[in-house]
Design a protein that fits this description.
Elements (H helix, E strand, L loop, with lengths): L5 E4 L17 H7 L4 E4 L1 H4 L9 E4 L3 H5 L4 E4 L6 H17 L4 E4 L10 E4 L2 E4 L3 H8 L3 E4 H10 L2
Helix pairs in contact: 4-5
Length: 156
């Protein structure tokens, strides 16, 4: 495996792994990664979840609180998915560390990968996803596909 590249949310490079069975292929991300080393990961698929599946969100706190066992991850049917997502996040984190990732580009609004905004307690608000939280704790910088788009748009 090549070392020292980028981690990217698998859905952003065209993998159909989202809760709705779709991808969120992002032309700016794909263009940015061209000729760069990267590893596409989906913590939710690494948790053993299928696609499509019920959407999940943070309940009762943010990613740090989920990691501490105070908050939970629940799906749209009310099922607690915390333990399986934590396993998937740690699998993804081990792969990112082994890859010697220097940066991650992740899908905003995701309970796994959100960088500045996530769905929590029934609404979209400030916060980070569980994978983002653990990447940052391990010294890997993270930005969203939206940030990448904004930087491209700002360049003359």
């Amino acid at each position: 495996m090549k070392k020292g590249g980028y981690i990217v949310s698998a859905c952003l490079v065209g993998r159909r792994c989202r809760y709705d069975g779709e991808d969120k292929s992002h032309s700016g991300v794909v263009r940015f990664l061209r000729r760069r080393k990267y590893l596409a990961l989906c913590p939710e698929m690494l948790a053993g979840w299928k696609s499509p599946r019920p959407a999940v969100e943070l309940r009762g706190g943010g990613a740090a609180q989920v990691s501490e066992g105070v908050a939970r991850i629940k799906d749209a049917r009310g099922r607690d998915r915390t333990e399986t997502l934590i396993r998937g996040v740690h699998r993804a984190l081990r792969r990112a560390v082994a890859f010697e990732a220097r940066e991650a580009i992740l899908k905003e609004k995701s309970p796994s990968c959100g960088v500045e905004r996530v769905y929590r307690d029934g609404r979209l608000g400030r916060g980070e996803g569980l994978f983002t939280y653990w990447l940052r704790k391990n010294g890997i910088s993270v930005r969203s596909e939206e940030e990448l788009s904004a930087k491209r748009a700002a360049k003359p």
